[in-house]
Amino acid sequence: MRHLIRALALAAPALVPTIAVAQGNLVLYCSVQEEWCRAAITAFEKKTGVKVAMTRKSSGETYAQVKAEASNPRGDIMWGGTGDPHLQAAEEGLTVEYKSPMLKELQPWAVKQAEQSKFRTVGIYAGVLGFGYNTELLARKKLPEPKCWNDLLSDKYKDEVQVADPNSSGTSYTMLATIVQLLGEDKGFDYMKRLHRNINQYTKSGAAPAKAASSGETLIGITFQHDLVTFAVGGAPLKVVAPCEGTGYEIGSMSIIKGGKNPKEARMWYDWALTAESQSIGAEVKNFQIPSNRNAKVSPHSPRIEQVKVIDYDFAKYGSSAERKRLLSKWDKEVKALPK
Questions:
Q1: What span, in angstroms and rounded, lies between the C-alpha atoms of 32 and 208?
Q2: What is the DSSP letter of 155?
Q3: CA dist., res. 40 & res. 45, Å (int)
Q4: Exposed/middle/buried for 331, CB within 10 Å: 0-12, 13-18, 19+?
Q5: Angle at 177 between CA 226 and CA 143, to 5 degrees
Q6: Range of lowest pLDDT (5-14, 150-159, 161-170, 282-291)
Q7: Sign of the C-alpha dihedral computed for residues 206, 110, 117 and 277 taken in this order
C-alpha cells in the first residue's frame, strides 16, 4: 500500500498539465461586433472546454496586427471582418491552408472565397454596403432624403456624412473599392474627393458611423446595412438605404494564423464557427449578416443580397495585396490629405 501511495504521489504533478492541455486555450482576434464575439466565445467554451482570450478590433487593424506579429504570432484565429484583409493575409503567407469538413454545408460564395485563397480563408457571412440617415435630424434640418451615392455629394450635406478610414476599416475599404468599380478609377477618386468635403469624421471602426447616425451625432452614416439595421431594430430613427446606382458587398471571413501557438484549438474553432448552431448566434445578439451555412437561421431583419442591386464585386482583384496597398496609398495622398 505504501508503494502504491508513493507511486500516486509521484504521478500527481504530471496529471495537472495533462488536464490543462486537454482543455486547451485559444487566442481569438475578433472583428465582428463585441456582443457577438462574447456570445460566440461563451457558447464555444461551454461546448469544448477550450478557454478563449479575445481581442476585438476592426478587420484592417487585425490584419495589421497579424502582419506585425508574423515573426512571433500571438493570435490563433482571425474571425470576422471583411474578406479583403483575409485574402491579403492569405496571399502574404500569414495564414495557413485548412479544408474544413464543414465546407459541404456552406453557400457557394463562401466556398468560392476559400477556393480563391487556396483554402487559407473561408466565408462565414455576407453583408451589403449602404448608408443610413437619421430621420428625425433630416426632418428638423429640412433636408431631402438621400437615395443614391451621388446624392451624398450635395452641398446640403456639408459636414453631415460620416464614414470610416479605409486603412483601419474593411467596411470603408469595401466602399472605396465599390465606388472604383462602379464609376471607374478616375471618376471614382473624383467622387471620393468631392465626398471628402461633406465628411465630418473618418472613424476607426466601420460600424461607428451607424451608431453615430442612430444617436444623431451625424446625419448620414456610410456602413454595412446590417450594422444600421441593428440600431433601427432597437428603435433608433434610422432609414437604411441601398444606393440607387448599385452597391458592393462583403464576404466576412475567417482564417487560421500561421505559427499560432494553438493550432488544434484553432481548427476546433474554425469547424465550429462554420456550423449552423454557431452562425445562428449572430441574429440572437442582433447582428444581421447573412450566414454562410445553408442551415443557419436567417433573421427576417437581415438585408438580402438578392433584393439589392449589387455590383459584380471582384474579390480576387480588390483583395490582392498589391491592389489594396495601391488604392489605400492613393486614397491617403489624393483624398485624406485634402483640406476641408
A1: 12
A2: G
A3: 9
A4: buried
A5: 60
A6: 5-14
A7: positive
- Give residue 32's region: left, alpha or beta (phi > 0; psi -120 to 50): beta
Does residue 22 have a pLDDT over 60? no
Average pLDDT value over all residues in the chain: 92
Q: Which residues pair with 77 in a beta bridge?
A: 28, 256
- What is the largest distance, in Å, between two alpha-carbon atoms of the chain? 90
Would you state the cell numbers that stand for residue 321, as one nine-digit string?
495585396
Cell output for 259: 505559427
Q: Give the distance, in angstroms, between the CA of residue 78 and the centroid of all CA atoms in the same chain.
A: 10
Residue 80 has pLDDT above 90, yes or no: yes
The pLDDT of 88-94, averaged and rounded, is 97
Per DSSP, the residues of 74-110 read --SEEESS-HHHHHHHHHTT-B-----GGGGGB-HHH
Joined together, the cell numbers standing for residue 93 give 503567407
In this prediction, residue 211 has a pLDDT band, given cuts at 50, 70 and 90, of very high
What is the distance between the alpha carbons of residues 159 and 142, in angstroms, rounded to a whole number?
15
Q: Is the pLDDT of residue 20 over 90?
A: no
Q: Is the pLDDT of residue 85 over 80?
A: yes
Please, where are the H alpha helices in the chain? 2-23, 34-48, 59-68, 83-91, 108-116, 135-141, 170-183, 185-196, 208-215, 225-233, 263-273, 276-279, 281-284, 315-318, 321-331
Query: Please, are residues 309 and 155 in contact by the beta-carbon 8 Å criterion?
Result: no
Report pLDDT for 7: 39
The helix-helix angle for 225-233 and 208-215 (nearest 10°) equals: 40
Domains of the chain (ranges plus CATH)? Answer: 2-126+251-305 (3.40.190.10), 127-249+323-336 (3.40.190.10)
What does the DSSP 8-state code read for residue 293? B
- What's the start-to-end Cα distance of the chain, in Å? 85
**32 DSSP 8-state letter:** S
Give per-residue pLDDT as tens, 159-181. 999 999 999 999 999 999 999 99
Residue 120 makes CB contacts below 8 A (sequence gap 6+) with: 89, 90, 95, 96, 97, 98, 255, 256
